[in-house]
Amino acid sequence: MTTLFIARHGETVWHAENRYAGVSDIPLTEHGLEQARALAAWAKDANLDAVYSSPLQRATTTASSSAEAAGVHLSIDSRLIEIDWGQGEGLTRVEMAAAFPAAYESFVANPASSPLPDGESALAAIERVMPALDEIVLRYPGGRILVVGHSTLTRLIIATVTGMDLDRYRSTMPHVGNCTLTILRFGSTGTALLG
């Protein structure tokens, strides 16, 4: 059985202000760096075979300390990048509601099927991330791999592997904590199971 530990990166300034970061390349706060160090302390004794990361610096900074602690190479995969929020990048919910009220209302009601203006759809995000995870599982049969990514992408992955309606991912899973772990186990059939 192959185990993927999916971790959200540490805190950024935008996340502390409840701004949508998406594909914007925002650095970690000092608190985010502390969270990354705590994740690395876990990684040191987690018997990891590999560490993968989104290319954004908030993820690579978080992941690099864990890779170093585990004594493994850090692999960057662009398919692990967060969903693109389009015109919502850098805005708070209040600012989005003021800037494009109808589109924001549709997004709140059905976030997967009604992306923010010029934003990436949830389906497009899943179509790029799931093959990346499948490749990691095939590369490390029976392995233990840390994947450092992002909040929305993690929730979409969980919704996909559990068969949840993607439009319910935000209401069912309103928050993913920084540097918390979601554990997926892949059996010999390639089926992902939440652990």
Would you write up a description of this structure?
By secondary structure, the chain is an alpha/beta fold. It has 8 helices and 6 strands; from the N terminus they run E-H-H-E-H-E-H-H-H-E-H-H-E-E. The protein has helices spanning 13-16, 30-44, 57-70, 93-99, 101-109, 122-139, 151-162, 169-172, and strands at 2-8, 50-53, 74-76, 144-149, 181-186, 192-194. A 6-stranded mixed β-sheet has the order 3-2-4-1-5-6, sandwiched between helices. Helix 3 links the parallel strand 2 and strand 3. Helix 4 (93-99) packs across helix 5. The radius of gyration is 16 Å and the shape is globular. The model has no long low-confidence stretch (mean pLDDT 94).
